[in-house]
Amino acid sequence: MQPRQPTDSRRFLTFRVGSQLYALGSEEVLEVIPMPALARVPQSPPALLGIANLRGTVVPIAGLRQLLGQPPAAEEPSARAIVLDIGAPIAVRVDSVAALEHAAEAQIDSRAKEVGADGTERLLGVVSLGRDAAVAKILDIRTMLESAFANRGRASPRNGLPGAPLRGAEGGGADATETLVTFEVAGQEFALPLTEVREIIPAPASVTALAHSEAVVLGLTAVRDMLLPLLSLRSLLGFPSPQAPSGREKVLVVRIGGAHVGLVADRARAVLAAELGRLDPVPPVLSARTGGESRIRSVYRGEGGRRLISVLSPQQLFRDDVMHKLGAAQPSQARDDEPAQPIGIQELTFLVFRLGGEEFGLPIESVVEVARAPEQITRLPKTPKFLEGVVNLRGEVLPVIDQRRRFEMPAAERPEGRRLIVVQTQRHRAGVIVDSVSGVLRSSANAVEPAPDLTDETSRLVRGVINLPSSNRMVLLLDPTELLTRAERGLLDRFEAQRQRTGA
């Protein structure tokens, strides 16, 4: 039988950081969990280890060692995250959890809080645990967190959402361009209008085959509780099937005739703003044929005609009999999985890119194009270390920023796969080098969760989070204005002034 606890006792959760024993009042603790997978937040204070998905809720994780001014510890199986109830959800990492202890008021000495404090410790007192005469320091965790994550005048985003001015806000010519998503099929470059693409995702490792289906229908896969039929662009366009998957295949999710369909391409290529004057109709001799050429809506002449991109028409990709079979094979909820958006709910589109193991999103309105990272970059003296230099991009001198250096990350182990994202804000245009581009992601505005409100530094840069627990993904949404100009506004202003003088 458990001994009855005195009515004037308190409960404490005790835990260790290094060799020191600490305690928190049980009323502040919601739960204790194993250390979850973390998404790192750029330009965050050292004490913020990252953010995690806790049953669909985005929770920041702070390191108690860092809060105490100690060096970080190696990853240990005993490490735990203590989820706290201090007005907003937050968790702290500790080396190990000891026990849940009861202590009478006589065992708590609040007068010892100043004497027992060491360095950055903030104490409410100490508690003597009579069982083995151990003494635990009671942390004033609220004060420590407030001190580490002081938010000094957060700049509120427009409508509470991440956003950026349209490229045409200052004469960028948004009315004269169409944004295309380009991809490769059988060694040729094709494109779909961005307005037709719901999102771009990696090809799934496993696909459920459909009985009695033709070669164009690859099967079904599950995407966020939706059954998605996969169709081969190679077959639709009249190309032979590959001998074996390359591992770089991408699925372009489009919505046609009330149904979501996944179009499997060999790999994704770029996102670019195509000038309408360079989009030519298909020559009549080709449009009269009945093969893959009839699926082409127009041809884009890029890079002075050296890069020809065939723009597809989704409505012309499928024959009536294929769509009939597709509709018969799809469960009805697959066609009606996306209920009508309530009036006034905004839909947002983001370009998702990777740096290390983290995914970040930029509003598609701020993206001019995506291309391979240039091999030759002209270095400039006396510039910040994250500024790689400048490149000549089709006659325009463009400053190039190494985003890994900007976020103080180590250099990429395999730089050959890097991509250049050309970003346009109301005042600047610059190229941002990232590890890779994951694709396009659409989300309703009410699905964007606010970023952890911890410091003004991170709050200005990270304007929201899209949490995708079913696929174990978390996308941090960045403000493109802060991305380009956070500490070097004057430098980029000079680039922009020079670009305008030269008429680029």
Structural overview:
The chain has about 500 residues and is mainly β. It is built from 11 helices and 32 strands. A 6-stranded mixed sheet has the order 8-1-2-11-10-9, with no helix packed on it. A hairpin with a 4-residue loop joins strand 28 and strand 29. The longest helix is centred in the last third of the chain and has 14 residues, at about 490-500.
Task: Describe the structure using short key phrases.
elongated; 504 residues; six-stranded mixed beta sheet; mainly beta
Number of DSSP helical runs: 11
The rough form would be described as: elongated
Q: Overall pLDDT, averaged?
A: 77
Portion of residues in helices? 10-25%
Poorly predicted regions = 152-160, 163-174, 288-293, 331-341
End-to-end CA span: 83 Å
Radius of gyration: 27 Å
Strand content: 35-45%
How are the strands of the biggest sheet laid out side by side?
8-1-2-11-10-9
Give the oligomeric state of the chains in this entry, treating copies of one chain as homo and distinct chains as hetero: single chain
Number of strands: 32
What class do helices, strands and sheet pairing give? mainly beta
